[in-house]
Amino acid sequence: MPVTPLHYPFAFGISKVNKKLNLSGLVVGTVFPDIEVPILVIFFQNILPDHLVLHSLIGAFTVGLFLAIFVTKYIYPPLIGRLFGLNLERLRAECDITPTLTMSVALGIVSHLAVDLLYHPFNPILWPWVNPYSIIGPLDIYFSTFLGGDILTGFLVANVAINIIMGSALALIIIRTNESRWERIWIG
Fold first, then answer.
1. DSSP labels for 97-113?
2. How does DSSP classify residue 56?
3. What is the rounded CA–CA span in Å between residue 140 and residue 20?
4. Which H or E run contains 77?
5. Are 153 and 143 in contact (CB under 8 A)?
6. 167-179 pLDDT, tens per residue?
7. Separation CA 89–CA 92 (nearest Å)
8. Distance (Å, rounded) from C-alpha 54 to C-alpha 68?
9. I need a labelling partner for 174 at 20 to 30 A (CA). Which of 16, 27, 75, 126 fits?
10. For 125-182, what is the HEC assignment?
11. Residue 91 exposed, middle or buried by CB count within 10 Å (0-12, 13-18, 19+)
12. 82, 107, 80, 83: which is closest to 22 by C-alpha?
């Protein structure tokens, strides 16, 4: 998976394609499904995989959407505002719960699931209807065919490639955003 913050370029890109969407909601949506990863690793290591409920469509659009909207409204403004010295009132106003914010969070979540679907050897996206072990990322398959048919090696190569691409995109966004940089990056 891309390191969680490296999902950000999708949020930024989507916000540029449709300027009516809410960047704050997109940002939280693109990173939110990974909130379950440290919880599963810490409490269920070697028992459960690190992607489960929030990486399934059912979990993402029920519990995930509700919690991500809550985080966008109540946690994102003070956290990002203080970290980057942003106008807290403007950020809070941007994070008011509206249909646009809800749609933005949902699109962010979908983009996260879509990126992860490309290269994870375990994809619970269609859980409980489809066994997560039967959905292998197409990039894993592609790279594994050139590396002796080993899916794990294909995953590792795909993971490195995705992280390089997303890290480069994030660096480009930061470099190209010069005028009131942090406000444009976090509020839009």
1. --HHHHHHHHHHHHHHH
2. S
3. 35
4. helix 76-84
5. yes
6. 999 888 887 766 5
7. 5
8. 10
9. 75
10. HHCCCCCHHHCCCHHHHHHHHHCCCCHHHHHHHHHHHHHHHHHHHHHHHHHHCCCCHH
11. buried
12. 107
Q: Which two tokens stand for residue 7?
A: 């999902």
Total-model pTM: 0.88
Average pLDDT over residues 113-126: 89
**Cα–Cα distance, 176 to 19 (Å, whole number):** 18
Give the residue from 21, 28, 19 showing the smallest Cα distance to 80.
28
The two tokens of residue 173 are: 């966004």
- Distant-in-sequence, close-in-space partners of 71: CB < 8 Å, separation ≥ 6: 28, 32
pLDDT in tens, 39-63: 888 888 877 777 778 999 999 999 9
Q: How far is it, in rounded angstroms, from Cα 90 to Cα 125?
A: 35
Helix axes 23-31, 76-84, angle to 10 degrees: 100
What is the average pLDDT value for the chain, to the nearest integer? Answer: 88
- Which residues, in sequence order, are CB contacts of 157 under 8 Å at separation 6+? 143, 147
Largest Cα separation within the chain, whole Å, is: 55
CA distance linking residue 104 with residue 132, whole number of Å = 27
